[in-house]
Amino acid sequence: MNQIELKALAKIxxxxxxxxxxxxxxxxxxxxxxxxxxxxxxxxxxxxGPGIGVVSNLSFLPTGEGNIAYKAAQLLKDEFxxxxxxxxxxxxxxxxxxxxAGGSSNAAAVLFGVNRIFRLGLSKRDLMERGVxxxxxxxxxxxxxxxxxxxxxxxxxxxxxxxxxxxxxAKPPVSVSTKVVYEALDAKEITDHPDIDGIIEGxxxxxxxxxxxxxxxxxxxxxxxxHPVIDQIKREMKEAGALNAMMSGSGPAVFxxxxxxxAAREAQRRIREKSLARQAYVTSIHSVRRNQNAD
Length: 295
Description:
The protein is of the alpha+beta class and 295 residues long. Helices cover 34% and strands 28% of the residues.
């Protein structure tokens, strides 16, 4: 095998709580992650030269060591002393720096692809252990599906699958720094925590309504005041029929859960018409079939 083409899926957070800050600067979190069918296309090819090349459809994306996909390839090349070169082509559709784990998902795809085309023999668990060195979301992006993430995001527990529904994702034209958001959160007392256990109960009951009603993201307390457009998008989604709408990760992307694609399309039309977000995508939940014997 000399090349492989992969889909790097975006994630949304059905629930995101921050429990505290560690001395090393990382935060203890309790999150429920869900992968969706909004994805980047990642192509890996062996090359004769020894280096790593990254090309992308986005001109502003770094293509050297500043790109996490490059770092993922370098990590395995160094460990396994791979002499051949690797060309990584990123055809990106997931909004960048939006709270949707696009970069982490690209890195996960590269780890998976390099393992496959160079026949390194690493299990999924092996890849996840290496992925956490690149970023806290990378192990989840290898695992995918409906998952409880704890610790700094690397302690993952499989949950019952999310009930099927239509998802609308909208990214407003604003930039959010994850570092700034967490620093602002550290500076205030958190009094309103999301109902993570309620979401888990909803998943166990296969109740979309229960999951939606318990959704919450503690980071909204600092990001929304910085960027009120996030609240405007949430309101448009709910008025168009979303069971609930919420910011994903540290933002600024917002997602809404809908029972019908028609209602999601109407919300998408309203959001674009009012110029709240040009990047607005109607998609669906991605479920993973778990093999009990899989690693």
